[in-house]
Specification:
The complex is a heterotrimer of chains A (460), B (125) and C (493). Chain A has 460 residues and is of the alpha/beta class. Chain A is 37% helix and 15% strand. In chain A, α5 (116-133) runs parallel beside α12. In chain A, the strands form 5 sheets. In chain A, strands 2-10-9-8-7-3-4 form a 7-stranded mixed sheet, sandwiched between helices. Chain A has a 4-stranded antiparallel sheet with strand order 13-14-17-16, with helices on one face. Chain A has a two-stranded parallel ribbon with strand order 1-15. The radius of gyration of chain A is 26 Å and the shape is globular. By secondary structure, chain B is an alpha+beta fold. Chain B has 4 helices and 9 strands. The radius of gyration of chain B is 13 Å and the shape is globular. Chain C is an alpha/beta fold and 493 residues long. In chain C, the strands form 3 sheets. Chain C has a 7-stranded mixed sheet with strand order 1-7-6-5-4-2-3, sandwiched between helices. In chain C, β2, α6 (170-177) and β3 form a beta-alpha-beta unit. Classes of the chains: A alpha/beta (460), B alpha+beta (125), C alpha/beta (493).
């Protein structure tokens, strides 16, 4: 068995010494070298890889467990961060079902006869997303909220070939950055619509909109947590110029906010994490992308359709595949292949459990916690709401001092405070963005208020 | 399979002269190669095309192909029925599966296209 | 397994599947009514047991790595270790908010940093970004890096990318999204890149050549150093598509072959599960000259610990929100830690041994377009069967289902007619590989003697040969659809 390092060295490698001998004999070889002869010596690695020594299962659990103990997570601390990712309740049934290995160890359902489970789940996912967004068709998922938006902006360009996309400055900074990265090479121009009172300035939008505008993008609720007003009016303005209206939305908020399709959006996208996906330090979750049926041939990403088999039985298949890279190559609507099917499955299970009523309750719990926090925090001296516009479950405060100091102070008390806005919005000095969910308790908010109060009283 | 009264391009489109206009579609051979056609995108009326321009795309279940104008001209009519029933291209490529009608800019371009027998030779070779 | 109705059919008004706390504060939100929904979304109203049974039934309708052997070429369907699942779901990863201050996430940043270093060593690169969310996004990232590199050098004429005709469809699509013109070149009679053809195709406009090595035929590009030289002579970059890296771990490194930039699929090579179509992760590695262009944020380390920095003015920017698919990255990290150098090399050797053994067993029954030893996968052609009895590659693929196997990749790469692309990963035992070989041999006999049995396969699955043309011509993409309503199928009130 010279040179073969297989067999007993790993529980994931089944070949025994006898197996290898039998296989070598069949092939007429006596060493692995002979199978790799076509790799020239100059590009062969003539030493072992220099990696940490292999560990056993208990050692890994110990080692990685110790590393992870250094992280602070929301069971150990109160977390008031949002920005598209929220500390939301995930019913345990979601984990139970998504952990079934028939789902998570399956491949992309290219062979429908042996993939009806995944295919039907994607069809049901597309159905609930169409319902939530008020649009006709949802793709099977994108990578995340940012790339789904980039896909949408590229899609609008493919629909009308116009050069300019207008993005509200109230959109998540990462999303705007990813849109720029994605469109940088294809010559699309990205312009930002300025803010007014924490909302997208409609007068500025009016002035920027013209016949060269491919699409207008607004986020709702926007990055500051404010609910954008007059969306129907925006849709009319945008459509008068023949452009497409794209809304990036929080999927939970669609439990009570008017759906994008109803206010006149042509494309709706967003981050799927709040729907039953763990935070996981920002990924994997998934992005969603939905549109009107006239644009289905321009929609990037996989789609599942219902059909019948040769015996007339209803079933599901990947469809409209001629849009995709494996057929259309450089002319495809996008290069996307592997997406985030498992995250989409989790969201389907989540939405099935919650139903319309549960989704509404999540909104009301979150928004009432936010209201309670806002009422109490704004009573502290020098603390004000940054914007007068209505918010749902996230809002920005104006503090008298930089929030970084407050956040370090709070961390000592096991509180992870809000997000300082100045990093992304230099004009908003000392602004602090806080998020609340159905998991935020009254005690957490009361403690937060107390600590902020103490910090203010000690401040110079 | 390849009617005598049509002219053919090497990229598998056909043209039929009808009342001074050119009716354009794809050949029996092309639809057979593509398999079940599921979608076709055609240009709007008034589009002006040069010979060899891409005038649309055709998608089957597992393939996608560009459509090339066999002659130059302006599109005067588009077969709108194909959006609802793209299968017409498979069922009747020279009849109900027609795609566009153009007012030809240079009718003499027809002479440079293949005859039925020349085209048949091309696809059987 | 009988068909499972849609989740909507279990819905009954008044049922619920959730349990939430009571509000502690009665104050409502202040959102004006015109911004609110007028009707609730049409979602199912079901209780927890309904949901559990429905999705358990759906799961039972799937083939999966944990139910059987997946010989899918170029997909590396290896076993997905359970330890990795447990670790990725520890609260110290699962419950980290991506905007947390760096001092609260030192543990995960250390894992990121160590994974970057390990990938650099495995692939012979100078730096890695873990940000790309999947293989295709990794390719796109790499192409944007190349574009930024040439723009920085003021070489805007470099606007063309060369791709072999055996490449994955994502290669041309990614190059195009990065603003490049795509030029495809044919493979030679060996199934490899022809130096002559490549030399002729390369010009001053060439920005990059995208290559998978071993290529999609499972063959190692032996002339790789000369290929690199041809590209580098005109200042172009060589990109490595990591789809097939499972053949060469610890044996040969793209960085030593002359590649400037590579992407890797953690969901292929490093055992993370495919999830029925994602999530994946597609980290990108570069040689030092491309480091300034890597996506931000990047992880830095000093005496005070780990930091995230966006201070790289030449960076192409962000590829996704936050940092990468952490849950996937952690699984790959655990896999590499468990196998170590020796284990990874053993995995590649066993994958290649499996593939060659299987090829050897099948080479009489099926046409082998490119004979000789393969690497971790190989391509057969069903041309002979098609000619003799009209049995096509797809029929053989479907017939394999009756033997309890997932079909191989079919009709790819495009340069082989009636292609069956087969990859038996190292985690499949000799017994399993033999059973698969026996099934394909028996199907070859059937194709001769009883071809209709193969042409009409599968016979044992609940669903057989769905009408894909109907699905595309009359798209029913959501329930309730105009079509389901017409046929009166609404299963609930």
């Amino acid at each position: 068995m010279k040179n073969w390092s297989v067999g007993s060295i790993s529980r994931y490698l089944p070949h025994t010494a006898e197996d290898i001998e039998e296989m070598q004999k069949e092939l007429g070889i006596s060493s692995p070298e002979e199978l790799f002869q076509d790799i020239p010596g100059e590009v062969r690695l003539h030493r072992p890889l220099s990696l940490p020594p292999p560990l056993s299962e208990p050692e890994i659990l110990q080692d990685v467990g110790n590393l992870l103990e250094r992280n602070v997570f929301w069971q150990k601390a109160s977390v008031f961060l949002g920005g598209g990712h929220y500390v939301r309740h995930i019913p345990h049934a979601v984990d139970f079902l998504a952990s079934r290995s028939e789902f998570y160890t399956a491949y992309t359902p290219y062979q429908p006869e042996v993939s009806q489970g995944t295919l039907q789940a994607i069809y049901e996912y597309q159905s609930v997303m169409a319902q939530l967004t008020g649009l006709d068709v949802s793709n099977a998922s994108s990578y995340d909220g940012a790339t789904a938006l980039a896909d949408a902006v590229r899609m609008a360009h493919q629909v009308n070939s116009r050069p300019k996309a207008l993005l509200s400055r109230a959109i998540h900074p990462h999303y705007r950055q990813v849109v720029r990265t994605y469109t940088s090479a294809e010559g699309q121009e990205i312009q930002e619509i300025p803010l007014q009172d924490g909302l997208t300035s409609l007068s500025a939008l009016q002035a920027m909109l013209d016949s060269q505008t491919s699409c207008v993008v607004i986020q709702n609720p926007n990055f500051f947590g404010c609910v954008e007003a007059n969306l129907k009016q925006v849709a009319e303005m945008v459509h008068r110029q023949g452009a497409l209206f794209i809304l990036s939305v929080d999927p939970i908020s669609l439990g009570i906010l008017a759906p994008p399709g109803e206010v006149g959006a042509d494309i709706a996208t967003g981050e799927g994490q709040p729907l039953g996906n763990p935070l996981s330090f920002g990924g994997p979750s998934f992005g969603f992308l939905a549109t009107r049926k006239e644009y289905i041939w321009k929609l990037p990403g996989r789609l599942v359709g219902r059909t019948v088999d040769r015996n007339g039985k209803p079933c599901y298949v990947l469809t409209l595949q001629a849009r995709e890279q494996h057929i259309k190559r450089e002319k495809a609507t996008s290069n996307i292949c592997t997406n985030n099917a498992l995250g989409a499955l989790r969201s389907l299970i989540y939405l099935s459990l919650m139903g319309a009523e549960g989704l509404k309750e999540v909104n009301l719990l979150s928004s009432s916690a936010a209201r309670y926090a806002c009422d109490n925090l704004t009573q502290l001296p020098g603390v004000h709401l940054l914007f007068p516009s209505p918010f749902l479950f996230e809002f920005a405060l104006q503090l008298p001092l930089p929030p970084e100091g407050l956040n370090s102070e709070l961390l000592n008390h096991r509180i992870i405070g809000g997000y300082p806005l100045q990093k992304d919005y230099p004009e908003f000095k000392n602004a602090w963005l806080l998020a609340f969910t159905e998991l935020t308790t009254k005690e957490q908010i009361d403690t937060l208020c107390q600590r902020v109060k103490e910090w203010l009283s000690r401040a110079p | 399979m390849f009617p005598e009264d049509l002219r053919y391009s090497e990229s598998h489109e056909w043209v039929r002269l009808e009342g001074g206009l050119g009716v354009i579609g794809i050949t029996y051979y092309a639809q057979e190669q593509l398999g079940d056609v599921v979608h076709v995108e055609l240009p709007p009326v008034d589009t002006s095309l040069k010979k060899g321009d891409i005038f649309g795309t055709i998608e089957s279940v597992k393939a996608s192909s560009d459509l090339y104008a066999p002659v130059s001209g302006t599109v005067v009519e588009v077969n709108g029925d194909l959006s609802e029933e793209p299968e017409r291209i498979n069922q009747d490529p020279y009849g109900k599966g027609w795609m566009i009608v153009v007012e030809m800019e240079y009718p003499e371009e027809l002479d440079h296209l293949l005859t039925a027998s020349a085209y048949e030779k091309l696809v059987s070779g | 397994m009988p068909l499972e109705p849609l989740i909507f059919s279990y819905s009954r008004k008044g049922r619920k599947g959730y349990s939430l706390p009571r509000p502690f504060h009665p104050a409502p939100h202040s959102i004006p009514s015109e911004s609110l929904r007028t009707t609730p979304p049409f979602l199912p109203e079901v209780n927890e047991q309904d949901v559990i049974r429905h999705f358990v039934h759906l799961s039972q309708m799937n083939f999966a790595v944990d139910t059987g052997f997946y010989p899918l070429g170029s997909c590396t369907m290896k076993y997905n270790p359970k330890l990795n699942e447990i670790i990725a779901n520890l609260p110290g990863i699962r419950n980290l908010h991506p905007l947390q201050p760096v001092e609260t996430v030192q543990g995960i940043l250390q894992i990121y940093s160590e994974l970057e270093k390990m990938l650099c060593e495995i692939f012979g690169m100078d730096a890695f970004t873990l940000q790309p969310a999947a293989g295709a996004q990794g390719e796109f990232t790499a192409m944007l890096l190349i574009r930024a590199y040439f723009q920085k050098k003021g070489m805007k004429q470099k606007n063309q990318v060369i791709i072999p005709d055996s490449a994955h469809g994502t290669n041309p699509a990614s190059a195009r999204m990065a603003g490049f013109e795509v030029h495809q070149i044919p493979s030679d009679a060996r199934g490899l890149v022809s130096l002559h053809t490549l030399q002729k195709a390369v010009t001053e406009r060439t920005a990059a050549f995208m290559l998978t090595n071993p290529n999609t035929l499972g063959l190692f590009e032996q002339d790789i150093l000369k290929i690199a030289e041809i590209l580098h002579n005109v200042g172009a970059q060589l990109f490595y598509d990591g789809a097939n890296a499972n053949a060469i771990l610890g044996i040969s490194r793209p960085g030593d072959m002359g590649f400037d930039v590579i992407h890797t699929n953690l969901h292929k090579t490093f055992s993370t599960p495919h999830g029925g179509g994602g999530p994946g992760a597609g980290p990108v590695g570069v040689k030092s000259h491309l480091i300034p262009f890597l996506p931000v944020p990047r992880i830095l380390h000093d005496d005070n610990g780990y930091h995230l920095s966006e201070d790289f003015p030449d960076s192409i920017g962000r590829m996704k929100s936050f940092f990468g698919n952490t849950g996937v990255l952690v699984r790959a990290y655990v896999y590499i830690r468990e196998l170590g150098a020796e284990g990874l090399k053993a995995a590649s050797q066993a994958a290649v041994l499996n593939a060659n053994y299987l090829l050897h067993r099948l080479k009489e029954a099926y046409q082998v377009p490119y004979p000789g030893f393969c690497k971790h996968e190989f391509v057969l052609s069903a041309e002979k069967q098609k000619r003799e009895s009209g049995v096509r590659g797809l029929d053989i693929a479907k017939r394999l289902m009756d033997f309890g196997f997932h079909p191989p990749t079919v009709y790819f790469p495009l340069i082989v007619k009636e292609a069956l692309m087969i990859e038996p990963p190292e985690t499949e035992s000799l017994e399993q590989v033999k059973k698969f070989a026996d099934a394909l041999l028996q199907i070859a006999v059937e194709a001769k003697e009883t071809p209709d049995v193969v042409k009409n396969a599968p016979h044992t699955t609940e669903i057989q040969r769905p009408d894909e043309a109907l699905a595309a011509r009359k798209p029913d993409l959501a329930f309730p659809s105009p079509y389901s309503q017409k046929s009166g199928e609404i299963g609930w009130n």
